[in-house]
Design goal:
This protein is α/β, with parallel strands linked by helices. Helices cover 31% and strands 26% of the residues. The chain contains 14 helices and 21 strands. The strands form five sheets. It has a five-stranded mixed beta barrel. Strands 17-18-21-20-19 form a five-stranded antiparallel β-sheet. It has a four-stranded parallel β-sheet with strand order 9-8-7-13, with helices on one face. α1 runs parallel beside α9.
């Protein structure tokens, strides 16, 4: 085997992989970075960034429509073309990763668009976009950051239809008259509300009992209430059994016996890890695994690290970035704190926005903790009252009563993800609840409701 010798190969250049490859190259390591699609990964081209531009547009539409209740008459003619132009030109540069590739190369890395596969311990085989096969032997090892792809439920006929995923949704130049969203998680809920506010008739089909099931049930209940008030039809606890497409129309059969008809279908039913074409079997790993088991330095085994969604520690860009810093230190034999996941935050950018950190109440009980919870409604706070329309939300805190510290919290409402920052620090640093109760909370702010939630602990 005529292999090229390098220090490190990074397979997959999502945000964490790109950051790790850049950091390793900047300190002088000979680094090869490989990605089968766009350098930067899902987040900047199909996820976090373009979808937040969509959310920003839909929130502006909603605020104008609320103006009559707080400031006077105002009208808006929503134009999707404005949102599309921002995504196309400002967020994704027409889905071109040249700038990201240049950043990596300027740092000193070799970049390939192609498929990277393990070919035994310390060995990676890269098939480039033009079909060339290059074999690399690594002195330090391989970092796996392959990410995920949209999962498609095994529904009769669905695979034969031109359904959308998030990748299609963010590239839309025009919106349809109606859409059925399959999946009530963060992606499905964000896009459902965006489309609805721009005039699309939206139905959300969720097989589980509630929307955003990873969050607290109180948050799910409020979000469904808001959706219904905005004209979104929400169907929970139902199964999609069959799908067909003919003459420009989708027909979906539910287990309830109802048939839904729509112009388009958006599948937002989870993600599938890209582990099936990595050559894992060549190093004794299971290519059919749902995730890779890693230690607190992100090591899978000697000479192999894994970061991002495939580690099963949270499918969030910020987790991947956090892990990339831990793994890079280990690659470079540098000291530093190991990875911990007791205070992983997340935010769903619906309106109201949902921020969560650490454990939910049910997760804390399942972990055997002695649990106390406190909850307050944001609209009952002074800031929520003065905010008026759109000011609804809640703060919920989950305490390990034996230790007297918060192990989880939810902040839902205007800028819920920003309010969460306070709670994330409290959970991460294990600040005693008694200390949190002695703080001075600025008045009148949304975050002051945290004080009320702490007072409600019982």
């Amino acid at each position: 085997m005529n292999a090229l010798e390098v220090d490190l190969v990074v397979i997959g250049t999502g945000p964490g992989g790109e950051a790790l490859a850049t950091g390793a190259a900047k300190v002088g390591l000979k680094v090869v970075a490989v990605d089968k699609h766009l350098v930067g990964g899902e987040c900047p081209y199909y996820g976090c960034i373009p979808t937040k531009m969509m959310v920003r547009g839909s929130d502006a539409v909603a605020e104008v429509r609320r103006a009559a209740e707080v400031a006077g008459e105002a009208t808006i003619a929503p134009a999707w073309s404005v949102v599309h132009r921002r995504i196309d030109e400002q967020a994704t540069a027409h889905w071109d990763d040249t700038a990201a590739v240049d950043r990596l190369r300027d740092a000193g890395a070799t970049v390939h668009h192609g498929v990277g596969r393990l070919a035994g311990p310390g060995c990676v085989e890269v098939t480039t976009a033009d079909g060339e096969v290059i074999t690399y032997a690594t002195a330090r090892g391989v970092v796996l950051n392959p990410g995920t792809r949209p999962a498609v439920p095994p529904v009769e006929g669905l695979a034969d239809t031109p359904y959308w995923t998030n990748r299609d949704a963010v590239q839309l130049g025009e919106l349809p008259g109606s859409v059925v969203v399959i999946g009530g998680g963060p992606i499905g809920c964000e896009l459902a509300q965006v489309f609805s506010r721009f005039g699309v008739r939206v139905t959300v089909v969720q097989h589980g009992a509630r929307l955003v099931p990873a969050d607290e049930p109180e948050a799910s209940e409020l979000l469904e209430k808001v959706f219904v008030e905005e004209g979104i039809r929400v169907l929970t606890g139902v199964e999609l059994q069959r799908a067909s497409y003919a003459e420009g129309v989708f027909t979906l059969g539910l287990d309830s016996g109802e048939e839904l008809v729509a112009d388009k279908v958006l599948v937002a039913a989870g993600r599938t890890p890209n582990l099936d074409d990595l050559g894992l079997e060549t190093v004794g790993l299971d290519p059919h695994a749902r995730s890779l088991e890693v230690d607190d330095r992100l090591r899978v085994q000697d000479g192999i690290w894994a970061i991002g969604d495939v580690t099963g520690k949270g499918a969030f860009t910020h987790v991947s970035m956090y892990q990339s810093a831990v793994a890079l230190r280990d690659v470079l034999d540098q000291p530093g704190a190991p990875a911990r996941y007791h205070a992983v935050p997340h935010a769903t950018f619906t309106d109201p926005e949902i921020g969560g950190v650490g454990l939910t109440e049910q997760q804390a009980r399942d972990a055997g903790l002695t649990v106390r919870t406190g909850l307050t409604r944001l609209e009952e706070s002074s800031r929520g009252f003065t905010h008026g329309p759109g000011g609804q939300g809640l703060i919920k805190v989950v305490e390990d009563a034996d230790r007297g510290v918060l192990v989880g919290a939810t902040a839902m409402g205007p800028a819920g993800g920003e309010i969460l920052g306070f709670l994330a620090v409290a959970v991460h640093a294990e600040v005693p609840v008694d200390s949190l109760r002695t703080m001075i909370y600025a008045y009148p702010t949304f975050h002051r409701a945290i004080e009320s939630a702490l007072a409600d602990l019982s």
